[in-house]
Amino acid sequence: MLTSDENELLCRVGPGTSMGNFMREYWFPGLKSDELPEPDCAPVRIKLLGEELVAFRDTDGHVGLVDNYCPHRRASLFFGRNEECGLRCVYHGWKFDVNGDCVDMPSEPAESNFKGKVKIKAYQCQERNGVVWTYMGSRPVPPPLPELEGNMHDSYHITVLHRPINWMQGLEGEMDTLHVTFLHLGHLTTENTKPGTFNYHQAKNREGKFDVRETPHGTSYGMFRATDEGQNYWRVGHILFPFYAMVPGIENPLGANAGFIAYVPMDDHHTLEWSVRALKPGETPSDQLRDYLPNGTDWYGRYKITQNFANDFLIDREAQRANTSFTGIKGVRQQDMAVTESMGSIYDRTKEHLGTTDQMIIRTRRRFMAAARALAEDGTPPPGVDTPTVYHQRSGQVALAQNLDWWEATKELREAFNVEAMAMETSG
Amino acid sequence: MLTQEETNLLCQVSAGTPMGELMRQYWLPAAYTWELEPDGQPQRVKLLGEDLLAWRDSSGNAAFTQNLCPHRGAGLYFGRNEEDGLRCAYHGWKFDVDGNCVDMPNEPSTSNFKSKLKITSYKGADFGGMTWVYMGPNQENPPGVPQFEWGLVPEAQRRHYRRFIYECNWMQGLEGELDSTHAPFLHSRLNPDDDPKYGGYTVEKFADFHVQNTDYGLVYGAERKQADGNSYWRATHFLFPFYGMFPATPARVPLSIYVPIDDYYTMHFGLEWHPTKELQGNRWPEGDLPTEVGVLTGGGGPWKPEQKGTFYSKWWPAMSPETDFHMDLEAKKTKNYTGIPSVRQQDAALEWSMGPIMDRTKEHLGTADATVIKSRRRLIAAARAFAENGTPPPGSQNPELYNVRSCSVVLAGDQDWQEALGDWFYGRTTEYPAAAGVMTRQ
Question: Deepest in the core among A40, A145, A177, B241, taking most CB within 10 A?
Answer without folding.
Answer: B241
